[in-house]
Task: structure prediction
Amino acid sequence: GAGVSQSPSNKVTEKGKDVELRCDPISGHTALYWYRQSLGQGLEFLIYFQGNSAPDKSGLPSDRFSAERTGGSVSTLTIQRTQQEDSAVYLCASSSRGRLGTDTQYFGPGTRLTVL
Amino acid sequence: AQSVTQPDIHITVSEGASLELRCNYSYGATPYLFWYVQSPGQGLQLLLKYFSGDTLVQSIKGFEAEFKRSQSSFNLRKPSVHWSDAAEYFCAVGGDGNNRLAFGKGNQVVVIP
Result:
C-alpha cells in the first residue's frame, strides 16, 4: 500500500516568512510524528499525535513551530518567521497504534527546507 | 531521557568485506531498538527491530543485529557487503510508554570496489 507522503519535497524561503509542511500518513495509522534532521544535530523529535489525544509538543524548539492534525489523518507543520537555523529536512512518520513499545514508525521522504 | 551513541561516523568498506556498525544506548527501562537505513534522496527505511524474544534479529537484506543488555548495545553486522549497501545507517531507541524515538548521529557507509 501507499507509504507516508510529504509535500513539498523541497522548499526554499526567505528569512522571516512562514512555511507550511504537509504529511499524509499511512491509511489507518493513528499515530503521527514529526522529526527534524539537520547537520550537526542529527534526528530530533518534534511532536507526536495519537488519535484524539492532546499532542505531545515537548520537542518543538520554539513557539514559532506549531502543528495540527485534521480529522485524525493529514498533518501540517507550520514554522512562523523562519530563521536560517530552521534549515533542515523535516521528516514525518506514522505508526499503527502509537504505543511505541509495540509499534514501528514508518517514515516519509521528508521535506528539505532551506531558509535564505 | 534515552540516548544513542554511534561511533565511527564515516566507514569505508570494500565490496565483499564484512561490516559492523556499533550502537550503544542509554535507557532506564526495557529498550525497543531499531536500525533504519537512509539512501540518498530516500526517507528512512526500517532495517531491523528488537522488541523482545530472540536477541539476534535478522533482515531480508542479509543484515543482523544482536541485543546485548549487559553491554547496552545493538550492533549491526553484515558478513559481505554489496555496493548497494552504501547508505547512512541510524540506530534508534524507544521504550514502553514513551512516544519518541531517540536517534544516533548515524553511520555513513561507503562501499569501494
